[in-house]
Amino acid sequence: MPLPSERATQVVKERGATYGDPTPIYQDWADYMTIWLRINGVTDPEGLIRDVVPSDGAISNIFLKLARMKHGIHHPDNTTDICGYTNVFEIIEEAE
After folding, report:
1. Is residue 10, in this structure, part of any structural domain at all?
2. How many degrees, rounded to 5, is the angle at CA 48 between CA 47 and CA 49?
3. Could you read off the pLDDT of 57-93 as tens digits, one per residue?
């Protein structure tokens, strides 16, 4: 059985074949998250205002899928995952 690091390396190679260079995608994700954190009172240009909460994590996952789609990667699971993360967001928001 391959080691977890070996399996992870294989997954990264497979994702790279599907999604390409991750750098521009994660730059867009970082830009989306920066905006989200600022408009939701987590950070400002001076730094941290409040802790990140679980619903911020759900939004982060949505932004990653949107960043992939922005780069023309319309894998069928993107929209399904966005819907799923939206459901997760709603469940967390009710609990928070």
Report:
1. no
2. 120
3. 999 999 999 998 998 878 888 899 999 999 999 999 9
Q: What is the Cα–Cα distance from 96 to 78, expressed in whole angstroms?
A: 26
Residue 14 located in a structural domain: no
Angle at 69 between CA 64 and CA 74, to 5 degrees: 125
* Ordered alpha helix ranges (H), the chain: 4-19, 22-39, 54-70, 77-95
**Looking at the 3D structure of the chain, how many domains does it have?**
1
Range of the domain at 80: 21-95
- Answer yes or no: is 5 within a domain: no
- pTM for this entry: 0.79
Burial of 17 (0-12, 13-18, 19+ CB in 10 A): exposed
Give the C-alpha distances (Å, rounded to integers) separating 84 from 5, 9, 96. 28, 26, 18
Is residue 8 a part of any domain in this protein? no
What are the φ/ψ torsions at residue 3 (nearest 5 degrees)?
A: -65, 155
